[in-house]
Amino acid sequence: MLEKYYNPGNLEISKNNPFLGECTPSKHKRFATYVNMHLGYRAMYKLLNNYIRLYNLNNIEKILHRYAPNNENHTENYIKFVSNNSGIDRK
Q: Are 48 and 26 a contacting pair, CB within 8 Å?
């Protein structure tokens, strides 16, 4: 049976300040588990909103370089995909 992680953003476990609804301990070693999908989406929204408010990451390119860094992802492909499918310029 597939376990439910309710983590649509694939967010890592929040060590210092868990998001509302984050299960502790998580059912996964690295990634957070949320009690339901609604709170998983909320955590993703809050994280991305913090990128904009706190770090001035105010475009797709800046956000995705932090959210999906090159050392773990094909960030450039991700930026192109999001920009093309959202209709929002990357910069």
A: no
Same domain, 13 and 31: yes
* Residue count (the chain): 91
Domain count, the chain: 2
**Same domain assignment for residues 49 and 9:** yes
Query: Could you tell me the pTM of the whole model?
Result: 0.86
Query: pLDDT tens digits, the chain, 91 residues: what are they?
Result: 456 899 999 999 988 888 999 998 888 899 999 999 999 999 999 999 999 999 999 999 999 999 999 999 999 999 999 999 999 999 9
Location of structure tokens 């953003």: 9
The CA distance from 84 to 33, in Å, is 30
Range of the domain at 66: 57-91
Do both 7 and 44 map to the same domain? yes
Is 13:46 a contact under the CB 8 Å cutoff?
no
